[in-house]
Structure formats: C-alpha cells, structure tokens
Amino acid sequence: MIELIDLHKQFKTKAGVVKAVDGVGFTAKDGAITGLLGPNGAGKTTTLRMLYTLMQPDRGSVRVDGRDAAREAEAVRRTLGVLPDARGVYKRLSARENIAYFGRLYGLDEATIRQRTDKLAAALGMEDFLDRPTEGFSQGQRTKTAIARALIHDPRNVVLDEPTNGLDVMTTRGLREFLKQLRAEGRCVIFSSHIMQEVAALCDHIVVIAKGRVTAQGSPDALREQTGEANLEDAFVKAIGSEEGLFA
Amino acid sequence: MNALHTLWTVMAKELLEIFRDRKILINGLLMSPLLFPILILGMGSLAENRARTQLESALELPVINADLAPNLVAFLASQNITVEPAPKDPEALIREQERDVILRIDPEFADDWRGSRAATVEILHDSSRQDSQIPVRRVEAALQGYGRQAGALRLMMRGIDPTLPNAISVSHRDIATPEARRGMLLAFLPYLLILSAFLGGAYLVVDATAGERERQSLEPLLATAAGRGAIMSGKIAAACAFGMLALLLTLLSFKISFAFVGSGPLKGVDVSMVAVGKLLLILLPMVLLGTTLLTLISASVKTVKEAQSYMAFLMLLPMLPTIILLVNPVKNQLWMFATPFLAQNQLILMVLRQESVSLQQWGVYLAAGFGLGALLWAIAARLYHRESLAISA
Lengths: 248, 393
Known about the structure:
By secondary structure, chain A is α/β, with parallel strands linked by helices. Chain A contains nine helices and ten strands.
C-alpha cells in the first residue's frame, strides 16, 4: 500500500518559482490499479519522483507499506518497481543483459534472475527480442525491456510513469492485460497517464491532477457522482477545468 | 546486497559495454601504445641523425672579404669547412633561413693582423634558431683554434711562454650517470605518461555519468535500491581499471620498442619489469585523480558536450610542472612529492634515470595522491546525491 500525504514541491527557474506539486495526497491500495490522470505539466511526474524517493518533498510525506520514504529511502525503493519517465536502455547490452543488470543491483542470484526474466518476457511478449542488443529497438520493445527490468526483483508495489507513451495500439492492449495480471497477483499498481480512455478502462481508483493539485478522486462511479456528469469523459473535463491535453 | 556487490556489478557492466564498442576500445587502448613509441623513438633518432650530420659533414660557410685573410680561409678548409663566395645580402639570407651561419671578415682585418692588433671577424647567425646552434659552434671553435695558434706563435716570437696568459686552466668533469644523460632525451616522456594516466579513462567516465543521463538511463538506475555512492564508485572503478590497462599496454610497448633500439641515446633506459611496476604504481593515483575529477565534473554539468569542454583545460594541467621546472628548476624536495603532476613528473624521471626513491618519498607521494583522490571522490559522491543529477530533461 502506498500513501501520499499532502505533498508539496517547488522549483526555482529563470522565470521564477514554479509550484510543480501543491498539495497532492491519495492512497493506493494493494490489489488495485490507481490511475493518475492529468494534462501534461500537471505535476504527475514530480509526484511520482517524490514517491520513488528521487526527489525530496518540500512538505508532506510518502509511506510505502508503512515505511517512511524520506527516512528509509533504500528500503522503500527495494519494495518498489519503477518505470520512470526516462526509460533509456543500454544499447551495447541485450534486453536480457539489461534486465539482469538490474537484477544483480537488487542482489538477486543468477538462477533467480533467469527464472524471473523468462517469466516476465512471457508475460510481456518479448521472447522474440530478448537476446538481441537493444540498439535499434522500437519504442515498444524498449518500454517492455524497461518494465521487465523494473520488476525483476518481484516488487509488491509497481509505479509506472506514462507507460503507454509512444506505444502502438496492440502493444498498449498487451500492456493493459499485463497490468491487470499484476493487480490479480495482489500488487499495488500506480500509473500515470494523460489519456482518459486508458485510465477509465483500467483503474479501480482515479486521481485527477491539475496544476499540481488533486481536483477529484475516487472510483469511476464515484467520480461521475461527484461531478454530476453521467459520462466519465465529461466528468474528467469538469474535474480538470479544461479539455486541454486530455485526448490521445 | 551490499555496497561492494553493487560496485562490482556496476564496474562489470561498464567494462562489458566498453569492450563491446570496438572503435572506442581501439582508440582508448591501442592508440597510445602504438603512437607513443613511434613518437619518442622517431623523434629521438631524428634528433640524433640531424646532430650527427651537422657535426660530421662539411660545413658550407659563405665568407665576406675572404681575400683579406687567405691563411684563415686555408685553416677553415682544414677544419672540414668549405668556404663559399660572399652573398649579396647576407642578413637577408640568414633571416630567410637559407644559411645557418655566415662569416664576415672586417675590411681592416689585414692591417690589424699585420700590426698584431686583435683583428675582427663577425659571425652572422640567428640565435633563436635551434638548427643553427651546431654550425655556429663549429665556426666559433675553428676561429678560436686559429686565433690561439697565431697568438701562441706571436708570444713565442717575442720569447714569452705561450701558456703565461692562461692564469687558470678550466676543465670539466661531467658526473652525470650515462642513464641520466639518456634520461634527458626522455624529458617529455613523463608528460605523455601523466597525460594518458590522467585522461585515459576520460571517455568512459564522462559517458558513464553525463552520457547515461543524456541517454535517459540514469534515472531508472538511481531508482533501484542500489546506493548512489556505490553506483558512482563502480563507475570510477571501471574507468580506473580501463585506464590502468591502457597504461600497462603503453608501458609494455615502450619496453618492447626500447629493446629494438640497438644503439643510440635511448639504449639502457630502465624499462625492466621492476621499473614498469614502479611506473604503474606512480601513475595509479593519477588515474584515480583523473577519473574522480571527471566524475565530479560530469555530475555537475548538464550534457556530455559541457563535460568535454573542460578537456582542453585538463590537458594543460599535466604540462604545468614541466613548464614551471623549465623556468625555475629546483632540487627535489619532499613537498614536491605531495604536489600532483609535479610529483609524478619527478618520480617518473627518477625511475627512468635509475635513481633510488626513498621510502619516505614513496610514503608522502602515495598518501598525498590517494588522499586527494579520496577527497575528490567524496565531493563527487556529494554531487551524486543531488536531486537534479538524475533528471535528464
């Protein structure tokens, strides 16, 4: 279970101080998919970066399975599988070697790494290119490699930043099935997206973020009720306050 | 999982990547072992050949007013100097480097000579030209020889002992060891070795931090449970290992090429396995300094390009001691062994000249070198913990 409590984060830029995250809080339960929906620049990536301890919140806290992320950063990262916004792979290594590198960094032995790699490769449909060097991989192949290496240590909690970005329809469908499988295994899954159809199709709990704030959250049904809109799409638009950047 | 395991994992992965990149491997590992011996041996033998031809071949010397001093001209011919007719504009000839040296006999020469006064001859040359040094010295020596001969004859004719004007007699005893004299030819070998130690792992180091960030693979790496200090140390260790391998190959190539120098000034330079081992030990702290410094730079800049812009400056650093010693030569003192670049420079020269390095000097050197390396490592580790490090965009 992941709890985010009143997170704040601001950056100093040449144009002045930007409040990237200005009071974001929600709880993501085990065995459920929590979706972070918001237009580009709403503060989703910054929120997730604070969640996986890459950034320190100015205010507020993150608790993962009861552990405080600021105080026990390494222990928290151990229970997290993270697909960041940046998903570069090592070009001189094959997909399998990329995955094994992360497995070794988590201290797994070679037999476990092999077994987990084969299992993830089957689930993500990457047997065809598993042993090829990643140079020249398509966007989808790179993303699958990055997801597999993020989950090599069998984490209880999975955090994916815009996992379907730049993927074709078939790969996106496959990825959806994979996320459902993670949920069925009882994991806590959080993913962010700016595409409402995707969030609507998958999530048990939806957190709508705009301008660094949570503007609405709840199950799809609860959201419809809160906004008084029968259509989920209209509910999102109402929650965000504009239609900007919400369509795929 | 512990830090050491992380360090080892990162190091193995960085080395695997670099060994799969053939072009970088050839540039990084084989270029200097192939180039440096050619450079040093080629330049050594070129200088030697040139000196030998200048010393042994007949020197062509244009002489102005040669008809005023026929005896002097005859003497010059006996000294393997061929006298040539006077040119129209002697100074222009020297300036345009057509001639190294021209002799002008003063119009009053004949009168002065007959009157037993000091007769004037003038050597025209350009002292800023390295190439004219040997010809000028040959002409000077010949003229002095002629002058001494004539002077001694004049004294004897007047019944005076010709050695009387020589109140003191100066003689030289050169106590430089033969090894040290050869070492002089190798004055720039320390610079080459220090430079390749200092920046030999540069590509790998810049790529492993700034390059990874640019290719967006640093954020996922730092999002794993592995500690940042250990990740950074693994990258530094990989670059150090690569740098030391490149150095070992360079030193071995020196060893092999020196074995082929049958005679000549480079023969007998100490390239025993013991000397190679000592050189590696001297250069090890340099490799550490270079990689930690570059890691520090890579962690504080935004792009690979920005990191590379520091390279021109870094290449100058190893040159500083050579330049300072050239302008202000000082005797070896203990503090020098604690000064980076200067210490390496002096120690490499000492090893090549087969001078003994005391335990105290080794101690000061290694403590200072590794101490500074550890300090740079600590600063780089601090920078590695900055929030902005992982963020590529």
